[in-house]
Amino acid sequence: MLSAATESTKRPSLSTVYPTVDLNRCPYPFYELLRKERPVYEIPCNSGRPEFLLVDYDDLLYVSHHPELFTNDVLGFTLPSGDVVAPQGNGQSVVLNPPGYGLQHDTNPPGRANPDRVLAFTPFKPSRLRAYEPLIARVADELIDGFIHQGEADFTADFARPLPVVTICDVLGLSRDARPRMLFWAAGLASGNVRFYSADQIAVQGRKNAELQEFLDAELCARRDHPRDDVLSELIQLQVERDGHFDLGLLRHIAAFLALGGAKTSAHMLASMMALLLEYPDQMTKLAATPLRMEGFVEESLRLEAPIQHVTRLARVDTELHGVKIPAGSILYLSTGASNRDPKKFVRATGFDVERQNAREQVAFGIGLHFCLGAPLARLEGRIGMSRLLARLTDIKLVVGKSDLSNIESPHFRGPRRIRIAFRPTDLI
Questions:
Q1: Which of 319, 397, 268, 331 is nearest to 72 (CA)?
Q2: Is 169 helix (H, G, I), strand (E, B) or coil?
Q3: Which of the four pLDDT bands, split at 50, 70 and 90, describes residue 9?
Q4: Segment holding 310, helix H or strand E
Q5: Cβ partners under 8 Å of residue 114, min gap 6
Q6: Among 9, 324, 345, 410, which residue is least crowded by beta carbons within 10 Å?
């Protein structure tokens, strides 16, 4: 992304540990090495069980479409031996359950939709999404109004981070007073199977989890006693009708997932979209001239810079891929970042083209039974948010001395730390 500042400090090799913060600064040379030499890569680690990284698009599809062989319940699955997979990592790692952890897990028998996942999908049904379009446009315009007359803005802090948080607050029916707290929690709460957390980070995580839980419990109980015309009240009604009683723990789980589960992902997606436009100004010109290309731009950005670089699976049984034996209990990292740049699937895979015909086949949000629940809303935020931005700003340029395009400090999220832009308002030209 954009500059050599994103590159890893170490040359990748066939003994490289994955995932790490350093490698994720620019993982793509490592992915290409594996694609040529070892597409099913056994990661050198001391976690007590084998771990593998898969980099080919077709392999990601195969594993994703065979839940009878591979489960995404990587922390609580019972192996054929009777052993239960426990949270552990490669010697220095800790796995923390993110908001809504478990909603994406397999059912027994595998291959059926998780009923709690179906409940959580309520706000993202196609008929509901259409109603969110004017809401997202309004939120985007409110954010742009806050900086349009300044001629400069911190795109990440002023637009990319607040847009998804404010949008979901409005969707759920949370008050405007809740926005600052939700932004604060979104900035610190884990999302995904986060590894390499220090003791201090774990302590901070615990405090923020407790604060979020207390807040959501109050919101849910208030709506149980006095229902409103909002999504949280609707979820309570549907859950009680289904189960016969008010399940605060489950509803808190779902509410946390909806409120913050995709906040970081969408923020990094938006930041990477702007970074790519700044790197490829000819593509920005195309978009400004033909806004109908915006949907293709969203897909191509997700393809080239997947906000989350892998999804995880666990082998249910002994199996084999490309002649590599994968024992039951092995962890598999399915690299969305590598799969989206697979030249066997995408022509000129490392190039950026908003008119790419098969960009929609990117797998940044996963695929199959465990496709990201919030993906439809994230796509809308990308399309409408960036459409409003390009409609109201022109001559957008990077402010080099005030930007930091290196990757955020994360072993699996991709996104620039800070993008400062200069521009001219279109309504003042």
A1: 331
A2: helix
A3: low
A4: strand 310-315
A5: 103, 104, 105, 106, 107
A6: 9
Question: Within a domain: residue 125?
Answer: yes
Within a domain: residue 101? no
Rg over CA atoms, the chain: 21
pTM: 0.90
Count of other CB atoms within 10 angstroms of residue 23: 19
Segment 363-372 mean pLDDT: 87
CA pair distance 130, 134, nearest whole angstrom: 8
- Residues 310-359: pLDDT tens digits? 999 999 999 999 999 999 999 999 999 999 999 999 999 999 999 999 99
Q: Give the chain's length.
A: 429
Q: How many domains does the chain have?
A: 1
CATH number at residue 164: 1.10.630.10
Answer whether residue 104 is part of any domain.
Answer: no
Residue 102 lies in a domain: no
Residue 248 corresponds to which tokens in the numbers above? 């605060």
Comparing CA positions, the residue from 3, 5, 4, 9 lying closest to residue 22 is 9
54: helix, strand or coil = strand
Domain range spanning residue 36?
4-96+111-428
